[in-house]
Write a structure and sequence with these properties.
The complex is a heterodimer of chains A (165) and B (995). With 165 residues, chain A is mainly α. Helices cover 81% and strands 1% of the residues of chain A. Classes of the chains: A mainly alpha (165), B alpha/beta (995).
Chain lengths: 165, 995
């Protein structure tokens, strides 16, 4: 005769036993990863000494409030420009041919050297001398290059205009 | 398959493609992995024409690829600039309605159609400014939300609701200034006629319709509170250099999600239809159910239980440790203690009273492998054929009726045949609630393709409402009208003479046996008028293909096997077997009723329906198992309980079955269970049945193990382990193996696939079944030949008898059980859409309980008037066997003195089987659940309605075909895209035509 029953006597989980098992597991894991743990403790101590942990803790505790402020700060016209400019600059760098850039940067480097020397000399240059320097092949090459640059830039400007139609 | 002779070729972008007549350009492209953008088109839904992203140039005209049929020699271009510009314009219009914040969107899982299409079309900027719609999101429904601001008005959800699920709840109101999707006449979702099937959510190409279980859970950043999220979205939009970068980030994030969201294929366990889908989980948390286009039975269809009803898996009430009865309580034990106790008890009972003093009841909810192993355990280890499953409570009479007439006791064809059939006849079944996804195919064929539908039932259920002909026979008289219709068909000379001559035996004596079933006799006995009977016969005669679907309304009667036989006789006389769209379909109620029977948990059959008494068969199993096996058929469920009463049966081992609720006359069942000397129950929960046990073993549900099920079509499908078994629970097959090994069996199955391999090597029907062939969403419909060829449609060559001929069986009508004159109301009973059976699993879902908290009693308008009843009245029903106390709902679904009591309760005093008797079908011993009368006492005239107003039954459907895109095109603010982009001759290969 077995009547229908609903009562279940559950083995009440023994908190002490469960805790002691948890501690054993943790100690075993610590021992196994001794070096990594010791290094981590060193890092944590440094962070604590610097007050970083306190700051991070504050940030985490108030993460929603902080998030709102942070996003609001980012969501300002100036910041929009900064981010956009940053991204445009990245795009610009991506478009450049590295070899060409290398040549131009080499040129700029040498140009800077000359420029510095000229500044040191504190020389006054007459218009005649300036005109004569056109004969100098190095200056001619540089000017031609600059003209090419101006031409390309002009094309880009005009291209932009054309697309507006 | 279409014949290759009718195929033709045409070109897309200069490449040749093969097409069949009727195929659209988009269909051919998709079949050949050639990409044409398309957002509103879905292969399971068809053409909708709202999104306009599929514009292509076909022979010089700008057309939609989704609605333009491919033609021989046609040249299609999808890449030239005007085409791309048109597609770009369409996408830009969509983005006016949809804000792209993909990385913080829970739908960013790599399969977002809007995201992927925008990315393909290289959308760089918002051409038209995004405009929020003036409607708040609708969070009223427990399972899903609608966010109008994200809704692109593609109408996929509407198409799915109107024409695939055919519940007809959703429409788009194109009239208003800002169109949106509405439910019924624009009511909150929860108060609408929505049946929560989930179709709309599954097909939504973005995040407008989302499972609530996904919100804030799927993404890494999606749980961000709105106060941070809104400015973040603004910021992103403000500084974005273009969408390309956004897409790059969102793709990285989507890829990261795959690291923590697991997608696993499984097969639904809530009915015999066998829907398959992926379960998305994050640790043990179930994020969503996602059916797939290529799910073989259901495509993207699901029902409310399959889509949402999985909370039980993580329920606090799950059993997690073996329990042993000690006095008036159960105490937790180890597996070793429990199994040792069971092994020693079973051994001593077997030694003392013989092997046949122990019975084994299997589960139609568990896998084929588990059923196979359980019958092997009973037969090979315990030496008895006393093994049965719950098909004894439902479909055994259908199986018996078909075995008699056509030789195989299963559905004749697949769901494809049902959707193809010109005439579907449903007798005593309510597929819209009990087999919801199968019903969708019937409703779709009826609504869109004009297929005919006849329903014979006591209740005007949903399919009855939609039917071309609904007949209401007097209870338990189906055999009479079926026979009368058959006789009328023969009298008219409408029988399929050639079919009968070539393929059927016993015609002469059968015709003679029909003599008494005249239309007059039938009208008198069944209450169906002669006109209706003639109309019924005429409709069958006029249909080129007909099939009959039936369930418990036929099988739970004293004459159940004979009525099932009468259905099969009718199909034979009219030649409706062995052709596409024809046949007999006993709809299996549980996910694996078919499989439990197929794999041998039956007292007189080995797996694959080979008789125990056949010596050669027995020898085969004896050799394979290395034992000698008992020769005589064992007891069925019914006989086991009778056996307890007679003192012959001392012990029961039962798994996955709540017989103390679902067997008929549970008053008797309870007493018998109390009388058992030793009772083992294996279950997920402390079910009513388990409360009688001496030992309870905690089992693991389908999501926590591997295995296969067989659905109502005879389709074998694999399900995969999603989660680890909870606590100390274990898969049933593993428990059987461990117990067998405690009894010295030395079994060593490492995986269910090994069990299937063994079954396939022994049972001819499954010769070619293997886990490799069932990989993923692949399936096989038995009989499966050794080479893996399966049989979706039976009897094309011959019937399953030695001479290949079917048999007509003469029948007598069996009058139903009469309770006596004082019991003046007929009691019908059964399942309902939202809960599975008594609700052990589905009540664990808060949402399902919100929709249906209680069982209810349906009473007719007439009876309500006569007895002063209204929604919420409390009544006591009394039968000769017991009584229940339930609240009423007044409805037109039932008429006169017929009642309907739903079975979704775990309370004794509401359980319908307190009222039912122990009478049964004469052949199969299936109880006559549907033959009971009761008397009614009104206890309280007023009370709270058992069905809340948020139930779909109170909704107000708005039927229409598709989304009515013509109304969108008529709007003043709509300019056809084809007008904007002119084609200048042959565009193919042109470079730049910028406008």
């Amino acid at each position: 005769m077995a009547k229908a029953i609903k009562q279940i006597r559950k083995e009440a989980p023994n908190p002490e036993a469960e805790q002691s098992k948890a501690i054993t597991d943790i100690v075993a894991a610590l021992a196994e990863n001794r070096e990594a743990i010791m290094a981590t403790i060193g890092i944590v101590r440094q962070l604590h000494d610097m007050g970083v942990l306190d700051t991070v803790n504050g940030l985490l505790e108030k993460r929603v409030d902080v998030g709102v402020i942070a996003v609001q700060q980012l969501n300002q016209p100036n910041m929009h420009n900064t981010i956009k400019n940053g991204m445009n600059a990245f795009n610009f760098l991506g478009q450049l041919n590295p070899e060409q850039l290398q040549t131009v940067l080499n040129g700029v480097g040498q140009g800077m050297e000359k420029l510095a020397k000229n500044i040191d000399k504190h020389e006054k240059v007459s218009l005649w001398q300036l005109g004569n320097s056109i004969r100098n092949p190095e200056i001619r090459t540089s000017l031609t290059t600059m003209l090419g640059f101006l031409e390309g830039m002009g094309e880009a400007f005009q291209g932009d205009k054309r697309e507006l139609h | 398959m279409k014949e290759s002779s009718s195929s033709f070729s045409f070109q897309i972008n200069g490449k040749e493609y093969v097409a069949y007549p009727g195929q659209t350009i988009l269909e051919v492209a998709q079949a050949n992995d050639s990409y044409i953008p398309s957002i509103c088109y879905h292969p399971n839904l068809g053409t909708i024409q709202t999104c306009d992203t599929c514009f292509v140039n076909a022979g010089g005209e700008m057309v939609r690829a989704c609605s333009t049929k491919a033609e021989p020699g046609m040249k299609v271009d999808t890449l030239s600039q005007p085409v791309k510009d048109a597609q770009y314009e369409a996408m830009s219009r969509i983005l006016k309605n949809h804000e792209l914040y993909c990385t913080v969107c829970d739908n960013n899982n790599g399969n977002c159609v809007v995201h992927n299409t925008a990315e393909y079309l290289e959308i760089e900027h918002q051409k038209y400014k995004f405009e929020a719609k003036p409607y708040p999101p609708d969070h009223s429904h427990p399972f899903y939300r609608y966010e109008p601001d994200q809704c692109i008005l593609c109408g996929r959800c509407v198409e799915a609701c109107q024409d695939l699920q055919v519940n007809e709840t959703l429409t788009i109101d194109w009239e208003r200034e800002k169109p949106r999707v509405i439910w019924d006449n624009d009511v909150p979702i929860d108060e609408s006629s929505c049946v929560s099937c989930g179709h709309c959510v599954t097909v939504c190409p973005c995040n407008a319709l989302m499972e609530k279980s996904m919100l804030g859970e799927a993404g890494y950043l999606t749980a961000i509170p709105p106060s941070v999220l809104a400015p973040m979205i603004d910021l992103t939009k403000e500084v974005e250099p273009g969408y390309k970068e956004i897409f790059a980030i969102s793709e990285v994030e989507a890829a990261m999600r795959k690291a923590r969201i697991k997608r696993t294929k499984t097969v639904c366990t809530y009915c015999g239809v066998g829907c398959s889908f992926e379960v998305w989980t994050k640790d043990r948390q179930i994020l969503k159910i996602e059916p797939q286009e290529h799910s073989p039975v259901n495509g993207i269809s699901t029902c409310v239980k399959g889509k949402w009803g999985w909370d039980y898996v993580n329920s606090e009430e799950r059993l997690t440790k073996p329990l042993i009865r000690q006095g008036d309580e159960f105490i937790e034990s180890t597996w070793e203690e429990a199994l040792t106790l069971i092994a020693s008890k079973l051994t001593s009972i077997k030694e003392q009273h013989g092997p046949d003093s122990i019975g084994y009841i299997a589960s139609s909810k568990c896998s084929n492998e588990e059923n196979y192993l359980f019958q092997k355990f009973a037969r090979a280890i315990m030496g008895t054929n006393n093994v049965d499953n719950c098909s004894r409570y439902c479909q055994s009479p259908a199986t018996a009726g078909l075995l008699r007439t056509v030789g195989i006791g299963g559905d004749s064809g697949s769901i494809r045949d049902i959707e193809k059939s010109e005439l579907v006849i449903i007798v005593g079944a309510n597929p819209a609630e009990s087999h919801p996804v199968l019903a969708t195919r019937i409703k779709r064929a009826h609504k869109l393709h004009g297929h005919k539908l006849i329903v014979a039932d006591l209740r005007e259920n949903e399919l009855a409402e939609r039917a071309n002909l609904f007949v209401h026979p007097k209870p338990s008289t189906d055999l009479i009208w079926l026979s009368a219709v058959t006789k009328y068909i023969l009298d008219q000379g409408w029988e399929d003479k050639q079919f009968l001559q070539n393929r059927v035996n016993g015609l002469e004596s059968y015709i003679q046996s029909l003599d008494k079933f005249t239309l007059d006799y039938a009208e008198e006995m069944t209450g169906i008028t002669k006109e209706e009977l003639i109309k019924l016969a005429t409709m069958i005669h006029e249909a080129n293909s007909a099939c009959v679907l039936w369930a418990m309304g036929v099988t739970q009667h004293k004459g159940a096997t004979d009525t099932s036989t009468a259905i099969s006789n009718l199909l034979l006389i009219t030649g409706n077997y062995g052709r596409p769209g024809t046949g007999a379909y006993p709809l299996r109620g549980h996910n694996n009723v078919q499989g439990a029977c197929d794999f041998g948990t039956m007292p007189s059959w080995f797996p694959g329906y080979e008789p125990i008494q056949d010596e050669q068969v027995r020898k085969r199993y004896e050799k394979a198992w290395g034992v000698s096996l008992p020769k005589d058929p064992g007891m069925d469920n019914h006989q086991m309980l009778e056996g307890v009463k007679k003192g012959k049966l001392k012990s029961l081992y039962l798994f996955g079955e709540d017989m103390a609720f679902v067997d008929s006359n549970v008053n008797f069942v309870d007493t018998m269970l109390e009388d058992l000397e030793f009772f083992v129950v294996q279950d997920l929960f402390l079910s009513k049945t388990a409360q009688f046990a001496d030992v309870i073993l905690p089992a693991a549900p389908s999501l926590e193990k591997d295995g296969t099920f067989v659905n109502t079509e005879r389709r074998i499908q694999r399900f995969y382990q999603v989660l680890e078994p909870l606590g100390d629970s274990k898969p049933d097959w593993l428990i059987f193996q461990e117990l067998a090994n405690h009894l010295g069996a030395n079994w060593n199955y490492q995986h269910p696939s090994e069990i299937m391999d063994e079954a396939a090597s022994l049972a001819g029907y499954f010769a070619g079944v293997s886990y490799e062939r069932l990989e993923g969403f692949n399936s096989q419909i038995w009989p499966v030949a050794k080479d893996g060829t399966d049989t979706p449609l039976l009897f094309e060559e011959g019937f399953e008898f030695a001479d290949g001929k079917a048999r007509l069986i003469p029948l007598e009508w069996t009058p139903p059980f009469e309770a006596g004159d004082e019991y003046d109301l007929h009691l019908n009973n059964g399942r309902l859409l939202e809960h599975f059976h008594e609700g052990n699993m589905t009540y664990k879902s808060e949402g399902l309980t919100h929709k249906v908290p209680h069982p209810w009693l349906e009473v007719s308008l007439e009876l309500a008037r006569e007895r002063g009843l209204e929604d919420g009245s409390l009544v006591r029903l009394t039968s000769p066997y017991g009584h229940v106390k339930v609240r009423a709902i007044v409805t037109e679904r039932v008429t006169g003195k017929e009642l309907y009591l739903t079975m979704n309760t775990r309370e004794d005093e509401e359980a319908v089987n307190r009222l039912t008797s122990s009478y049964h079908d004469t052949v199969t011993h299936t109880p006559n659940y549907k033959e009971m009368s009761v008397k009614m006492e009104v206890l309280e005239e007023k009370g709270e309605s058992p069905l809340p107003k948020v139930n779909y039954r109170f909704g107000n459907r708005l039927p229409q075909i598709s989304v009515r895109v013509e109304e969108k095109w008529k709007r003043e603010d709509f300019t056809p895209i084809s007008e904007l982009f002119e084609l200048g001759g042959d565009e193919f290969g042109e470079s730049n035509q910028a406008n």
